Automatic annotation (TrEMBL):
Name of the featured protein: Microcin C transport system permease protein
Residue spans crossing the bilayer: 9-30, 137-158, 170-196, 226-249, 284-311, 331-350
GO biological-process terms attached to the record: microcin transport; transmembrane transport
Membrane topology: Multi-pass membrane protein
Length: 368
């Protein structure tokens, strides 16, 4: 097992390089960029943008179209005609665009391997501090949604497998399908209308993870306040989250229940509970565990953007979206790097968990 883990860890390096290379290449051909954004702000007479990106002492007359650099300038940037070429060169140097793409990519990889993500282009804060600031929201939503969905899905899936074809199985399947078909953001709006002061009841808050007076509350009230704020977002996100896992669990258990070793165990006089949890459970849960890393990682950002926006939760989903829109490349690449790395590590942990549940699995004999 040790050799397999070592191979997987070494494989992470070229995988991460490939992910970052493809993303970097896409960005090179994507229209727009941070320099174009600043030019657009300047052309719109956003004088504060000049101060922000010239060290605070720049004068728009000195770098702009009115008397700073002379005549028309030919530039590769849209809307840059009339701006001082020296100002454009200064922006390129500040953002690192004065270097060739290969050099920029190599420097980015070297920094990222040391977890040095630099600073945000448009916020006066380092990328790590910015991510750390938004991380509690995403961890709260992702972790609790995953735990709640699995806590519901696994027992329900086992029960449906044991009651296959019964009324219980039929009506629960109907509820699951309907829940899966309802978009989470529409259900979130419905929850706001019903329970958050929309038109009926005003029972739940709509902003943040905690109340303004959270710091002065007793510890038990802090816990209640925290889950009070999470109640509606988690309900909206988990509505369809448990559908796939429930049906996966049911089908996995049905496949195992129909196998010969289960019939043999029953013939030996073992109880249904003993057959289920001593023999079937270990084999049936392997496929469910295989889906855990994807569910765990996707819960941090897949589908959370709209929920974070609707409930005014400033997490990584909203941060990533705003960074793409604003062409804040350090934040975009840093979040991509961290989530990709987290996904690869969690997949490795999932494989190790396989061997814990079923020691018969031997990854040493399997090629990576």
């Amino acid at each position: 097992m040790g050799a397999y883990i070592l191979r997987r860890i070494l494989l992470i390096i070229p995988t991460m390089v490939g992910i970052m290379a493809i993303s970097f290449l896409v960005v090179q051909f994507a229209p727009g960029g941070p320099i174009e954004r600043i030019i657009a702000q300047l052309q719109g007479s956003d004088v504060s943008a000049t101060d922000r990106f010239t060290g605070g002492g720049g004068d728009f007359q000195g770098v702009g179209a009115e008397g700073g650099g002379g005549g028309e300038a030919t530039s590769a940037y849209r809307g840059a005609q009339g701006l001082d070429p020296e100002f454009i060169a200064q922006l390129e140097k500040q953002f690192g665009f004065d270097k060739p793409p290969i050099e920029r990519f190599g420097l980015m990889l070297w920094n990222y391997f040391r977890f040095d993500f630099g600073e945000s282009y448009f916020r006066d804060i380092s990328v790590l501090e910015l991510i750390a600031e938004k991380l509690p929201v995403s961890i709260s939503l992702g972790l609790w949604m995953t735990l709640i969905s699995y806590a519901i899905s696994i027992p329900l899936g086992i029960r449906k497998a044991m009651k296959d074809g019964s009324r219980f199985d039929i009506w629960t399947s109907g509820v699951i399908i309907v829940g899966y078909a309802i978009p989470g953001f529409l259900f979130a709006i419905l929850l706001i209308v019903l329970f958050a002061g929309g038109s009926f009841f005003d029972l739940f808050p709509l902003r943040g993870l905690t109340s303004d007076n959270w710091s002065v509350l007793p510890w038990y009230e802090k816990i209640l306040d925290y889950f009070w704020h999470l109640a509606l977002p988690l309900t909206a996100m988990a509505l369809s989250a448990f559908a796939t896992t429930t049906l996966l669990t049911k089908n996995s258990f049905l496949d195992e229940i129909r196998k010969q070793y289960v019939t043999t165990a029953r013939a030996k006089g073992l109880t249904e509970r003993s057959v289920l949890y001593r023999h079937v459970f270990r084999n049936a849960m392997l496929i469910v565990i295989a889906g855990f890393p994807g569910a765990f990682i996707s819960s941090f950002f897949a589908g959370s953007l709209l929920i974070e926006t609707i409930f005014s939760l400033d997490g990584l989903g909203l941060l990533g979206f705003e960074s793409v829109i604003n062409r804040d490349y350090p934040v975009v690449f840093a979040t991509l790097y961290m989530f990709s790395l987290m996904g690869l590590v969690v997949n490795l942990v999932s494989d190790i968990t396989y061997t814990v549940i079923d020691p018969r699995i031997d990854f040493e004999t399997r090629e990576v």
